Each structure stands twice: as C-alpha cells, then as structure tokens.
Amino acid sequence: MIHAEAPALEIVNLRKNYRRLEALRGVDFVLQRGERLAFLGPNGAGKTTLIRALAGRTRPTAGTIKVLGHPIHSIGARQALGLVPQDLALYGDLTTRENLFAFGKFHGVPRRELKKRVAWALDWTGLKDRAGDLVAGFSGGMKRRVNLACGVLHRPKIILLDEPTVGVDPQSRQRIFTMLDQLNEEGASILLTTHHLDEAEQRSDRIVILDQGRVIADGTIDELVLSTVGHSRLVKVRIDRPLVAPVTVPGGGSVRSYQVGIAGREMIETRIDDVAVDLAPFLQAVRKDGYMVSDMEVHAPSLHHVFLHLTGNELRD
Ligand SMILES: Nc1ncnc2c1ncn2[C@@H]1O[C@H](COP(=O)(O)OP(=O)(O)OP(=O)(O)O)[C@@H](O)[C@H]1O
User: Which InterPro entries does the record associate with it (predicted)?
Assistant: First the structure.
C-alpha cells in the first residue's frame, strides 16, 4: 500500500491506564510531515507516557497510532521513528565515538554506512575534538547532544524528544535547537515535549497542550492566543505619584472607558484592544488627571498567558 499522503503521525483516541490511573484519556492529534510540534502540559499531564507510547515503549490501553500511514508495530513505523528520551541513555564508561557506534548498531545502521554516520554526528554535535573522551566526564549540555545524536543516527523521518533541553545552559539549548532545525530542514518531522514556554513559542509551528491526559488546546500560537486570552495588549504606565482613583477615558465609539490602576501604586495597568486607536486617548486621560508619565510598557499576549489561562495556577505535584 502506498502512503505518500499519510501524515507523519496520526493518533486517534489514545488511552493509557496504569491500573486505575488514567494517564491518557483519549488523545487525538496529527503531526504533519515536516512539522515541528511542541507538547506542553503541567507535571503529570501525560507527556512522557504519550512519547513512550508513540515510540512503542509502552503499550496503549486503547486507540490507534499510525506512523506515515503504517501501524505502530510495523517495521516501516519502527524505522521511521527516532526517540530521544528524557533520561540520558548513554554509556558513561564509553567514549563519544563508542557510544555512537553502539547506538548505530542498535538501530540497525548498516556497517558500511555507520562510519559515515558517526563522522556526521561528531561534526553535527560539535564534539569532534571530544570523540575519544569518556562521556562520563562531559557537561550536561554535551551529554544531551550525544544523547540526541544517538537517537537519530538511523536518520528517522520522525523524531520524538522528551524534554531535550532539560538541565542545560542557554548556549547548549541554542545549539540543540540549531541541530534540530538542521534535521527539520532536511525533512524530518519533530515532536517534542518541554516546560520552556518560550522555546515552544519560538521553535515550533504548532502547539498542543495536554492536561490530565487530555488535549485541551491544539493550534498555532496565534490561534491559541485568539481563542483564549484574545489579542488585547497589556499596557503598563509608570506615573510620578500614587494613583488615587482609576483613570477613565471618556467617550464612546472605539474609545472604551477604562477602569484601571491599583490605588497606592505608582503604576497604572490596563488592557487595550487596538493600540493604534486607543493608546493616545488613554495617555491623554492619564495626563488630564494630573499625572506625569515617566515610562510605559506594552505587552503582547504570550504562550505563558495562554498556558496559565488554560491550566490555572494550582500546583500539580
Ligand atoms: N510506569 C508508571 N506506573 C504508574 N503510573 C505512572 C507510570 N508512568 C507515569 N505514571 C503516571 O501517569 C501520569 C502521567 O505521567 P507522565 O510522566 O506521562 O506525565 P508528564 O506530563 O510527562 O509529567 P512531567 O512533566 O512531570 O514529566 C502521572 O500521574 C504519573 O504518575
């Protein structure tokens, strides 16, 4: 059967129970070919369980997973997938090169191809100079890069990464994303989980938010913002003395009446739907009430606002 048009991943009604605990409660989503998809969710939402089910490491209780149109346990599916697990899966007492050879063999990379792939991986990770060093002595960022290379040596078309940048410094994070971008440009589809909302916002085409085993949002950043917190801007204006009463903008039409400000603070906050139209009348009203404006910030809604809007502020663990 030809699956030329099948998406990279197609997940329908995926469920996973650990005894009575429902870790996944009917998850549906599609990963398109060439797409970069980020999975977000509070602790315990089911992200790792999902990745493990997609990688064939845990058997779902119900539901179907198709990989490029193939059933999950077919050879076609297995060859198409690459897993980069959250826990570092490396041999500390082997060198970088030895780890890469070991994982290449594990993934069934043909012997004649393996040497070339290991050379590519050493270059790609920026660890050519450390090829002969034991991995045990590496920094967290270096280990993450070797871990990543070990998961993709067989050139999978779909790469699953569980928190690929956990515990690494900003430089290493940047490097890891540059490495992933390179694979994506060469055609790989990427699905990763992360707790770094800024990473998800900047480095993915689409975002899925999981909570308590269910998909509670699925879309581009713009779609998620529009369907949750809306596109209004948060405007903060610093003034020269404490606010004594809320500033009100008179008039109807597009200029709304703002009831803003917290008495006793030298800062006024408001939400403005259309900055081009409504900001100037607001600032005029502030001045008319006798305040001097010393500074101003305009904040666009971010994934951070969307995430808290959807999942709340309560701790989950
Ligand atoms: N092997 C297991 N046996 C029993 N319960 C499990 C097992 N693995 C996960 N769970 C439970 O399933 C739920 C989902 O866990 P999972 O690790 O998938 O969440 P997560 O979204 O990856 O969380 P985190 O962000 O903390 O990594 C949790 O309640 C967890 O305790």
Answer: AAA+_ATPase (IPR003593), ABC_transporter-like_ATP-bd (IPR003439), ABC_transporter-like_CS (IPR017871), P-loop_NTPase (IPR027417)
